[in-house]
Please model this.
Amino acid sequence: MDYSADLKCHVVPNSKQNGFSPILRSHKSATTLEPTEYKHIKTVYDIFWNSVKEAPDKPYLGHRPYNPQTNQYLPYVFQSYKQVGERASNLGSGIIKVRQMHSDKSENGSILLRNWPVALYSIARPEWTISDRALITQSLFSVGLYDTQGQSQIEFILNHSEASVVICSLDKVHKLLSMADQLPHLKVIICMDSFERVGSNLPGEYIPSPFNTRSIDVLKHWAASKSIGLYDFKEVEEIGKQNKIDHHPPKPSDNFVLLYTSGTTGNPKGVIATHRNYTYSTISNVLSKSHLSKNQVFMSYLPLAHCYEKGQDMLATFIQGSIGFSRGDITNIFDDLQALQPTFYLGVPRILNRLYDTISAITINASGVKGMILRRGANEKIENLVAGKGYHHSIWDPLIFDKTKAIISKRLEFIITGSAPLEPKVYNFLRISFQSLILEAYGMTEVPIVSLGARPEDLESGIAGVPTIGVEIRLRDVPEMEYLTTDSPSPRGEILVRCPSVFKHYHKDEEKTKEVLIGDGWYATGDIGKINPTGTVSIIDRKKSIFKLSQGEYIAPEKIENVLSKHPLIMQSFVHGYPTKNFLVGVIVPDPVTFIPWAKKLLLETANSKEKEFIKSMGFEKLTKNQIVNKNLVEEIDIISRDAGLNGFEIVKAVYIDHRPFDIESNEILTPSLKLKRFHAAKYYKDTIDKLYSE
Model:
């Protein structure tokens, strides 16, 4: 590759080494990584309180109160930056005080030294963010727990982190108390929901069943029997208000958050990130998105225990934006979007792909004259977009695309997506449908920064982008997978990241820390990337999940699963192989919306009149067990795999079709962040896999 060409990134001179690509930076960071702007912002504490100072009355955190009398959710109600600041100050003082109330004399000194963890356990909601802001007033740090995490992982994380205080929603209190005997560090539980409101029928104060005044009394007695203090949020705020403690601001090197990675194999790893890590990350994010105004409205619906949503939370706070929280039920997300009308939407490929399927079905894939007209409109808009003429069209938008934009929000300006690239057809169609900038980005828990991000002027899809401001990227050879930085025309290898946002260490795990912090400030991501001729970087594979087949070929199952996930019939997939076998097998969970009509149509084509009645009555589960359906799905997999350029040995030859989706709780095949737990999936489906091979 010609690194001297006019590229979209800056190539650091004389940085090419044997086995490595040159170091890549943003053009805006060509001479220095340290931003010259916002020198007075050094911690997350500074980020928040600077916004309180500059925009005290601006709406900050919003939620939708519920009215049990009408069985409806009301419009969004917001708390201002100043109001949240006052609540955070009181809550921070209250947390210190109640922790002292439930300690022996020997602990008091360590409590006042600060830098101890408090776990947060709920869906994304205003109280989570208020708690986060409260902790930093006293130099405490948070431990994020997913709302969907199972008991064994909650138990592991609370013991591993040694969190003595948990702030949680009401539905989590009994779960914690049932584990109390296995949680020796737990001293205090603070409930986000008001105990006084339980049983109230007033709008905004309603707590749904099964909780009532009597159940609260039971919980309090249960907590007392375990020597655990149980308080509600307002109570601790009032304790703090009556026992004010001056702010104890953190230093940049102090811990800000302990987030646990997904734990796809074994127990999750605890990632310790400092105030310096997240502050640097946020400033880089702001500078890289200079087109963002201070009037942005954000929707929060992803878990705040994940760095993706936490990054949005930091960005919104820094630019003094407003954050509206969803109700926590993903099936109602579009109702919440309509109520909030956000300008900024943090998307995930799974939801964006579903949006594409829904919108395209009623527009470009419609039948007859209507479909023909809509396809013409879409094609014309995409041609204009690629030609650099923007997202808007004076004719087609009023006719069609103002309506498709309104599915998310009439005010929508930006969509950010990460974790996996969107297909070009999806990427382009959604951009013209939503008349909005859609930027693909790349980051991870260990480096809480958008390490690679697409620029607004970049129109290609399937790229992660260029290094963002303040970040260095390079590739290193992975010879066992035949990815080399000498490959032509595109160097390929493992992505390494270096910047001040790289995490501090894995909590209590020096060995794993050394595996990824490889020296000289570099973090080894385990992701495989390639440098495109323009200087952008694409994510193409994953290093850690590879295995061999009997013929010695290395298999990267995630690459294959990413291909399969693009088929409209397939919702989830798990690809596996044994080193003693020469072909791959898989488990497929189909999408019932597309699979049922496809399977019935397939069977009806060769059925007699008597069989047709039976086929029409067949349910989802029966269709997944039909051998003709299975055979045809394997053929579909073969077609999409070859079209995607997979090698013959990478094509799945036999599948088991499961009507039960991979999930977090019942089969525990997914992590709380919805990643596949490959080792667990292999154990769960072992008999099935053995049978596929024997047949």
Remarks:
- The chain has 23 helices and 31 strands.
- The chain has a mean pLDDT of 91.
- The longest strand covers residues 522-531.
